[in-house]
Amino acid sequence: MSRYIIQDAAAHMPGSVRMKHGTYKRLAVLEVERGFDHVAMISARARGVVRVVATWEKLNCGLTERCAYGRALQSARALVADLEERDRRHVNAIVRAFREVT
């Protein structure tokens, strides 16, 4: 059984952009194996990662929750909640079907 986590990392931007406009980050929703709370990189090749569900690239980190990073983080949290609810309903349906058979 896998679970979903939100992972962020620094985005690679040209030096002129970094100095003028601040910090930029990447954000991803990852499906990982049980026991992994954090992975080394946002990639399907990282140890413990089952798949990369969604990514948001080059997000400006502002001072408020209304910045691009803050809005993407809210979207990522909503996506994780939806995915976990869908998995929970799927497991419950399998358990009910098994109980009906036995």
Structure characterization notes:
By secondary structure, the chain is an alpha+beta fold. It contains two helices and three strands. The protein has a three-stranded antiparallel sheet, covered by helices on one side. The radius of gyration is 17 Å and the shape is elongated. It starts with a strand and ends with a helix. The model has no long low-confidence stretch (mean pLDDT 91).
How many DSSP-defined strands?
3
Chain oligomer state: single chain
Largest sheet: 3 strands, antiparallel
- Strand-pairing-aware structural class: alpha+beta
Count the DSSP helices.
2
Instruction: Compute the separation of the termini in Å.
Output: 23 Å
Helix content: 40-55%
- Backbone CA Rg: 17 Å
Order of helices and strands: EHEEH
> Roughly what is the average pLDDT, rounded to an integer?
91
Order of strands side by side in the largest beta sheet? Answer: 1-2-3
Proportion of strand residues: 25-35%
Uncertain regions spanning at least 5 consecutive residues: none
Form type: elongated
